[in-house]
Amino acid sequence: MTSEKLYLRHNVVVEPLVDNWYAWAHLIPPATAAMNIVGRHLKIMESYVKTPQVHAAAVKNPAMLGGPFIDYKEPRVPQIRDLIERTKQERGHLLELAAAIQQLDDLLRQEAKGYSLEPLYSRVPEPLRGYVELVYDLNNQPSFRLIESLLYRSVYYEESAQSLILSLIDQDDRAFVLSTPRLVENGDVHLRRPFHHSGLDELFKMKRVPQTFAYIKEALELEDELDEGFAKLLTPELPPPYEPYQGQGVRWRYFGHACILVETADVSILLDPVLSYTYESDISRYTYHDLPERIDFALITHNHQDHILFETILQLRHRIGTIVVPRNGSAGLPDPSLKLLLRQIGFQNVYELDELETLERAGVEITGLPFLGEHGDLDIRTKLAYHCRLGPHTLLFAADSCNIDPRLYERLHELLGDIDVAFIGMECDGAPLSWIYGPLLTRPLDRKMDQSRRLAGSNYERAVDIVNRFGCRAVYVYAMGQEPWLNYIMSVKYTEQSNPIIASNKLIADCRDRGLEAERLFGEKEILLN
Ligand SMILES: [Fe+2]
Ligand SMILES: [Fe+2]
Q1: Cα dihedral sign for 97, 101, 104, 106?
Q2: What's the 321 CA to ligand 2 centre distance in angstroms?
Q3: Which ligand is located closest to the Cα atom of residue 401?
Q4: Within a 10 A sphere around the Cβ of 377, how many other Cβ atoms?
Q5: Which ligand is nearest to the CA of 424?
Q6: Measured in angstroms, how far is the CA atom of residue 66 from the centroid of ligand 1?
Q7: Which ligand is located closest to the Cα atom of residue 374?
Q8: For residue 454, how far is its CA from the centre of ligand 1 (angstroms)?
Q9: 255 C-alpha to center of ligand 2: Å?
């Protein structure tokens, strides 16, 4: 071992995993994790070991994109069989929890008829006793709320399930992570560490500040057998320096999907952080290289895997001043708290912002706005659009907000006045509700109902209403999932005939006809507002 100072290479992929499945926000809270193990992971894996050829054919069919099919270049049946066995052995508590959620739901459906719920507490399945409150809505529809903070302190929160695989990448192609477990391959460095491990921050600091091999080995408590593989992830080569914005106005840069960096000379704000690694490509893009040393605010719009991506935010944890998340609401099964979740995985400074609440710093005001729709009409409160006022400039980041009821924006306009620049997501087809929430359903959902309740953003009429209502001077369609380096978390492949493309083309043409600046963002973009 030498005293040579080394950097972490900028093409090291960091895949956070829970039981070898790509970690996304429903795999951390115990209740949603339990339901996903049973209703997604085991189901997909058991289907694969029975009929791997069906999976192999399905992943080649573009119509099946994002479906529940395992995508490996070579068949991996024995490894998947092992993973099924291991999951069943090691996650017994969570399997019991999932069964208890199902039983509690059945109990409420059969017994809760509008009379007091108190007699039912003694019949709550044992794994859930003390972790739930039984409630009715005002129409006597029964349900339960989870006491999530207590569940995180129970046997059901198992950090031992968490690990990370580090490997090198030099192109965009990666398998879709919600349906394919990540097996350890030759050359991978598998770090069996919980996500809150402070050694990870030390590792990611090495993208800018070099350290010796011995230093990082100790910080990560690295096993000796990982030395050789780990050394390949490090380099003595200096990364390019970052030039912070020093102008008098505002600079924003588009990093892909819904990820935008907004900077003044004093404040930096990063929305929905989802970043590409740095490697040669025909598609020019901003990457980790292009971020400031300090990110004052990271703003998360909502709890979908393409907007809160652990892979990115864990690497930025040491640089983020405050991570701002929408306030959690019902504490029902489909709406876990992002604040509790992020604290659990090592974020110290999490701020839960409410609708119409404002955060202020150095002349910048960030206000949370109501975000309607895009969640299959489920009672999910953890979603916000953001209104940012930076000196004379106002920007709206609507993400996947769906303008279901234009009266909302009429009322918001009365309060906020005009907005200069609007960023609007127009994924107006959207997946059916079951795509994300299916494993949480305790009864099968009628197919027609499922198809009618979509995770869809604004269409042309809805988007143009926002633009007109706020008298926007510039409109950017974003959050469309088109960047090829995000295929692993998205399942869209548009053609010119796809509704979101037709709708956004129409919006852009319409806005340009009226002299507005309008564009569908792709790859990278930089704008200065003076
Ligand atoms: Fe979404
Ligand atoms: Fe999205």
Answers
A1: negative
A2: 24
A3: 1
A4: 13
A5: 2
A6: 15
A7: 1
A8: 10
A9: 14
Inform me whether the pLDDT recorded for 360 exceeds 90: yes
Handedness of CA 213, 217, 218, 219 (dihedral sign): positive
Residue 314 near residue 14, CB atoms below 8 Å: yes
- The model's pLDDT over 77-109, given as tens digits with 9 standing for 90+, comes to 999 999 999 999 999 999 999 999 999 999 999
Residue 497: helix, strand or coil by DSSP?
A: coil
How far does residue 374's CA lie from ligand 2's centre (Å)? 9
Give the mean pLDDT of 332-353. Answer: 97
Tokens of 526: 């930089």
Contacts of 82 (CB under 8 A, 6+ apart): none
Spatial distance between the Cα atoms of 277 and 260, rounded to a whole number of angstroms = 16
Using CA atoms, how far apart are residues 442 and 364, in angstroms rounded to an integer? 45
- The structure tokens 């009365």 sit at 414
CA 457 to ligand 2 centroid distance, Å: 8
What digits encode the pLDDT tens for the residues 262-285? 999 999 999 999 999 999 999 999
| Calpha distance 27→429 (Å, rounded) | 26
Supply the angle between the helices 460-469 and 406-416 in degrees, to the nearest 10. 20
Q: Which residue has the higher pLDDT, 490 or 166?
A: 166
Question: Rounded to a whole number, what is the distance in angstroms from the first to the last CA of the chain?
Answer: 51
**Which helix (H) or strand (E) is 269 found in, with range?**
strand 268-271
If you measure from the C-alpha of residue 429 to the centroid of ligand 1, how many angstroms do you get, rounded to a whole number?
A: 12
Q: What is the CA(376)–ligand 2 centre distance, in A?
A: 13
Query: How much distance in Å is there from the Cα of 29 to the middle of ligand 1?
Result: 19
> How remote is the C-alpha of 401 from its chain's centroid?
15
User: Residue 82 has which token pair?
Assistant: 């092992």
Cβ-based neighbours of 10, under 8 Å, separated by 6 or more: 207, 239, 277, 278, 287, 288, 289
- Indicate the SS3 state at residue 397: strand
Contact 298, 313 (CB under 8 A): yes
Task: Give residue 485 CA to ligand 1 midpoint distance, Å.
Answer: 18
Q: Considering every ligand atom, which ligand is closest to the CA of 371?
A: 1
Query: What's the CA gap between 298 and 38, in Å, rounded?
Result: 33
Q: Hunting for tokens 């997946």 — which residue is that?
A: 431
Mean pLDDT value across residues 199-219:
98
DSSP state letter for 137:
-
Residue whose tokens read 């003076």 = 530
Question: Which residue in this structure is represented by tokens 């959620």?
Answer: 101
Give Dmax over CA atoms of the chain in angstroms: 72
Give residue 473 CA to ligand 2 midpoint distance, Å.
24
Beta bridge partners of 365: 360, 389
Ligand nearest to the CA of 435: 1
Q: Is the pLDDT of residue 318 over 90?
A: yes
- Residue 258 corresponds to which tokens in the numbers above? 């819904």
∠ at Cα 19 (333, 438), nearest 5°? 35
